Every structure is written in structure tokens, then in C-alpha cells.
Amino acid sequence: MSARPSGYQQFKDEQVNVNIAKQKPEEVQAGTLCKGGNADFPIDQIPPSFELAELHSQAWNVGTTKLSKSQKRKLQRHQSSTQQNNQDDHIGKICDCCARQVPNHLLSLGCNNRDYSFLGAGMPLYFEYIKSCILMLLIMFVTSGDYNIITNVAFGTSCRALEDHKGQEIDEKTFCQKNWVTQSSLANKRSGSEFIDLQQMLNLISMITLIILFQYFRKEQRAFDAEIDSQTQYASDFTVLLKNIPTDPTGLQNGDFDDDLKNFMEQHIQKYKKLQEIIDYEQDRKQYQIQTKKPVTELRRVVAVNLCYNLDDQYQLEKQKQAKIVLKQKILSNLYSQGKDPLSSDVKSDPQVNQIDNEISEIENQLEALEKRFIEGKDVKNYFLGQAFVTFQWENDVQMLLEEYKLSKIQRLFGKKSQLVYRGANLIVEEPPEPTDVFWENLHITTKSKVFRRLFGYAITAIILILCGGLIYWLSAIQAESAEEQALAVKQGDVKPNIKVKIIAQVASISIIVINALLAMFIKSISLFEKFSTQTGFNISLASKSSMAQFINTAVITFAISTWVTKNIYGAGGLVYNQTYVFISNAFIPGIIQLVDAGTVSKWLFQYLEKRKGPKSVKTQQQLHELFEKPVFDISTAYATILKNMYVVAFYASVIPLALVITCVALLVHYWVEKYNIARRRTIKYNYSSQMSIEMIEQLELVLPIYCMTNLWWEYVFLESISTEAIIGICLGVGNAILPMHEINESMFSMKSEIDEHLPIQEAETGFLTDYCRENPATAETARQQYKIRVEKHKQQKLNMDKMFGDQ
């Protein structure tokens, strides 16, 4: 294998961007934080630069930096021209504030799901997850749902038309009025025991098919993840997370935490032999240095150590600075309202503005001093948390280190310790989360505090659900009164349907959607309060709690009220009637809301209004950047919506089989609207790992026990008997949910991702969205400036090596 395979060729292809990747920042008024490189980024300047905001907005477009041949020719043709259009002018440039490059290739609506892999394995797996849910619904429909609908409509006789009971007294709760809703439901054949017995057999077949299908889903998920992992490189592939590092500076070389650890790991990693591909690359590099008469230096195998700190002091200073900026904005607004020009001496020499600028500069000096301590790793005993991300030159070194020293949670629980000993401490070696996956500000929160916060969060969620139940009960009570009015009207000879019952059913279905949206907002705030260490942990918690809460609100509370309080299952305004309208509303309203996308529309409006202000805008550069960013894609809310839909349809599939078709349509609409929004109207700020998708498959398996338990319940309600098939279904469904099915799948289908190409991190990092130094707030400002310089330097060096060794 060549030491410079296809990924290396991609690096060479992108060198045409070097000359256009230089963005000159404007002068700063009140000092800045972004020290490093040759210039400071005007993060807090007022008025802001709209050109820089446009560049930042395009840098966050969802796309890759790989150029097509036509794009490369076009860039080379116009490389020295100043008359480029807006889009071409920004292509390949690096935004100074976030060190992200403007993508050359935006994703299309019809792109393959694998094309999302640069965003992390979790992103393409999200779309595969939706497809898996649609396949599940189709299988449930084919194996049992179609038979259910056909027999309900063709052979069901339990529901009758109102005309047949004109002038008679009816019980509004037990009389099943024949209409399109009840005719296709199980209530219409509740007296046909022979059909329900066969229905239970088909439900059992459906259950067994789904259990097999889940194993297939897991296998394909793992294979997909392994394929992406072997073909795509992330910062985490070159990094390990070390924990239990001594925080006492005693014995440190020069009192430097990161340098001492870096030297220790550099010495330790030498025990692993280098691969031949790596040796070949280093020989080419050495030959290049000799022929160009440059000092011959060897590549260090440990590239960087990024320490984790308690950032409370930094955040307090930031809050103080933001308070001063708000005060400055109010003063400037007053000056502009008096007709004073932003560039006039009246504004520049205003004593209040100057005083605040001086106060902001003082705070920024404190921030810079603190950041300097963090970067140097000295005198940080009170901040260092005993954790560090150690980045290596070669991915192979990371794999060997993890194979030797990584321990499972069970091994650590039983007291086993890693044999990697540093300054008398047994280090804990783990695979790291992605840089954007880390909640840096939460790393100092203790386990005890997190447990308390999560228990408190569950208690608040329960209280909110009780309040939601009260609202649904109130609507049900109003509907029950309308049903009684209809029963009285039938007795008096009026058989016209009560429109009020339909209207309340529709209002109730829309109310449930609104309540679910509010629930999602409350639970998101609760999950933030719980202080997770990673974005993935937060997303999993939010998706799990939100989906379960929305399921309880949508299905369980309505079911409980209709069954035990109003005791109206299939009567006018009963459970079957209301829940059918819920399914219909849920199929179309969320999709329409997503497509209209009020968040994007409002951003366009506020951007337009801000542009009209021009130099009289009082927003800082950072605030303008946030305004120009597209809305952030929220994968946890998306997963919660899908899971809620799957839980609800499983709960009612046997009694309302049409729900399978309606929900399938809803997911299909959701799939394509999500693809469109991500391609054109979303910012994705995180690399999503496969762990999120794995956990969501675990959550999805709850569909099986929900499905089989409700099958048994409806059989008991309508026939007052329980079949053997229903009991077997419950045993299989509950057993599948309890057993460690992911581990069983791993033992059944073994697979391992292999490194497809061995590149040094200096070349691989051009394909990273970001890295640990650029994301850690303690080091981000300096690291982002250094990254831009470093990438351009390595691009030029690689171009020269290619010319020398004939790799054109």
C-alpha cells in the first residue's frame, strides 16, 4: 500500500484554495480575544462587518470541501481575478472566527445517505433509522394490518348507522356509530371471535418477523458504521481520552502539565512498531527535507495534549463582558436615534462609550491571561480536572493503545485497573467523544450532582405530564356532554351527526400536538439542567424522555381517561374516534410546520432588517454571525418525534389498523422534509456518533412489548378472553426488550473496521470539521488562528513533495 493513497490525492487537489483562503479582518474597537497568528478577529466590534457574517454563514453550509474538476478549473481560471461573484469569492475561504472552510460541494436533496458521513456516522444512520421504521410499519401492515382492515370493513357488523335506531334510546358510550372511522377499526368486528382469533395468530407472526428484523437492523447498522469509519477520518480517530491524571503539580517537568504528559506518552508509544506504510512516508519526507536543504526533523508520534479545565472563571468573565457590551449597545442606540453618524467624532469620542470600551478591554485582558495559562499548562492546579485529550500523528498508534489499555465499564466496576501508570496513577484510557460532542463547561460537575439533577428532572417531567392529563380530561369531559346531547337527539328522532363532537375531536388532536411541542421544550430545558458531559448523552436523554413523555401524553393518558373515567371506547367522541383524528393530524401538521420552517423565515426577516441598518447596526460581530447562521439541526428532537410516532402506532395498531398506513405516510413526509431542510436550511454543529443511533434502536425495541400488550388488552376488552398467541407474543416482546440484543448481535455477526489509509494527522485534518484544541473554550481562540496558518503551510509543503516525487 502506498503511503499516500486517495486521501492524500484529495489533499493535493484542494491546494488551489490556498491563495484565496486569506481573509483580512477589520480593525477592532474594543480589543479582542482571538490572539494568535498575525491578526486578531474582531469578535466584538460594533458596527459589525456584514461581509464577514456572510462568509461565516457559508462556512456553516452543509457540504464538503472536495472540489469537482469543473470547480477546480473555474477557481484556477479566476484565482487572480478580483471580479468574482459572491459565491465563488467565498469558496475555499476559512472563517477566522470558527476556523471552518466554506464547502465547495453542497449536499443535494437526492444524495445518498452515505454522503452525510463527513458529519459523523450518526448522521447517515439517522436517515437509515427512518427507513427502518417505515419498513417496520410496512411489515406490520402486510403480516397483520391488511387482514385487520379487510375483515373490519368487509365482515364487521358490530357498528350500526344512527338511522337504524331512530326514536330509540341509545347509550352514547357503548353504541358504535357506523362511519369511516369505526368501520375500519377493530370495534366493528368485536363480536366476530373467529376473526379475532386468526388476528392474534397473525399478530404473533408479525411480532416474530419484527424480532428477526431488529437483528437485521443491528447488523446493517454496525456494517454501515464500520464502512464509514474505515473510509472517513475524524479527529477522534487520532485521539485517546486519558482520565485519572494526577492534578498535583509536584514532580512535573517545568511545572507544565501538558508538556510533561506529552513527553511521557511520546516515550511510551515508541514500544509500538511503525507500519511499513508509515516508514515509507517518513523516508519520503526526509528525502524532501534533504533535497530542499531544510533541517531534517522527525515527526513526533504525539502531536498535542489538550487538557480539560474547570471553566467557571472564564464563563463568569465572559458574562461580565457581555453585560458591558449590552450597556454599550444601549448607549450607541441612543446616539444613533439622535441622528449622530456612527463614524462621527461625537460617537467615537463619547465618554460613556470610551469608558465601557476600556472596561471591556480590562475584562478581555483577564480572559487572555487566563487563556495563556490554560494553553501553557502551567499554574493551573485549581483548574485542571485530571482529564486530557491526547492526539497522535498516526491513527494506528491510537488503535494499539486502546487495544492494550482500554477497559470496559464492567472491568472497572470490579476493580481492574489499566497498566498505563503515569506519576504513580493508573490512567483510564478511553475512546474519546468527537470534539463537538464534548460539553466542556460540564466536565467539572460531580457524579453526585448529576444524579441529583436527573432525579429532579424526572420529577418535574412527571408533574408536567399530570398537568397535561388534566387538560386532556377537561376536553374529554366536554366531548362526553356532546355525546349525551347526541344520544338524546336520536331518541327524539334527530339522527344528524353532532358536529360539536367532531369539532372537539379535532381540537383535542391539535391540542395534543401543541402540548407535545411544549413538552419537548420543557424537557429540553430539563435535560440541559442535568449537565451531561457529552452532546450524545444529552441527545439520548432528551430523545428518550421526550419521546416517552409525548407517547404518554398522546396515547396512554387518552387511553386511561377513555377506559376508566369516561368509559367510552368506540362511542361518539370515544377513544377510537379521537385517536384516529390524532393520527391524521399528526401525519400532516408537523410535516407542514417543518416545510414552512418558521425559524428560517424569521431569520431571513431579521437579517433583512439588520442589513437595512447598515453601519448603524449595534450588534457585535459575534451576534451578527449567530443571526446569519441557519437554524441548528436538532437530532434529539427529530428522534423523539419518530419514536413517539412508533410507540403510539404500536399502542393502537390492533384496534385502529389504519394508523399503520397513516404513520407510514407521516414518516415518509418527515424523511424528505428533513433531507431538504438539512441540504438547504440547516446548520449542523456536531459530529454525530453511531452511539446515538445504537441507543435509539434500543429505544425502538420498546415497540414490541407495547404492541403485544395492547393486542392482549383489546382481545380481553372485546372477547373477555385471552389467547395463547397473545401470551406468547408478550413473552417474546418483553424478552427481546430485556435481553442485551446489541451484544448478542455482536456475538452473532463479528465485524471490525480497518484503517483504509495511513495518513499523518497534518494531512488528514484538512477533512476534519474541527479538532479538540479548536473546540475547547480554554484554547479555542488561539488554536483557530494557528490552525489556519498550519493548514496552509502543510498544503504548500505537500504540493512541493508531490512535484518532487512525481505525484501530479
UniProtKB/TrEMBL annotation:
Flavoprotein among keywords: no
An example Gene Ontology molecular-function term: calcium-activated cation channel activity
GO cellular component: plasma membrane
InterPro entries: Csc1-like (IPR045122), CSC1/OSCA1-like_cyt (IPR027815)
Membrane spanning stretches: 198-217, 455-475, 503-523, 582-606, 649-673
Keywords: Coiled coil, Membrane, Transmembrane, Transmembrane helix
Coiled-coil zones: 353-380
Name assigned to this protein: CSC1/OSCA1-like cytosolic domain-containing protein
Taxonomic lineage from the root: Eukaryota, Sar, Alveolata, Ciliophora, Intramacronucleata
